[in-house]
Amino acid sequence: LAQGEILAPAKSVADMRQIIFNDWVDAALCGGFMLVVLMMLVLGLRAAFRAMASDRPTACEMQPQFREETARA
């Protein structure tokens, strides 16, 4: 854009600015979602390794508790 060059999809400098802005937004969103996936991977592996290192079961299961109206039906 600084060289005054306009690429194929743009017909004007304003269109070119919009394309550049959209590219930056796409890159930022991609980076954000990559961080989300990376954090899920890291936290999932951390939880799995903690569970494997524990000598007790790590799942907390409870008996279902029904309300009185639901139990009679």
Question: What does this protein structure show overall?
Answer:
With 73 residues, this protein is mostly helical. It has helices at 13-53, 68-72. The chain has one domain. It contains 2 helices and no strands. The longest helix is centred in the middle third of the chain and has 41 residues, at 13-53. The chain is elongated and about 70 Å long. The model has no long low-confidence stretch (mean pLDDT 85).
Task: Walk me through the topology.
Elements: H1 13-53, H2 68-72
Question: Could you give a quick summary of the protein structure above?
Answer:
It contains two helices and no strands. The protein has 73 residues and is mainly α. The chain has one domain.
**Rg (CA only):** 27 Å
Cα(first) to Cα(last) distance is 70 Å
The H-and-E topology, N to C, reads as: HH
Strand content: under 5%
Supply the number of structural domains: 1
Which structural class should the secondary elements be placed in? Answer: mainly alpha
Shape: elongated
Q: Which regions contain 5 or more consecutive residues with pLDDT less than 50?
A: none
Query: Can you count the beta strands?
Result: 0
Largest sheet properties = none
Average of per-residue pLDDT values: 85
Structure annotation, total helices:
2
**What is the helix content?**
55-70%
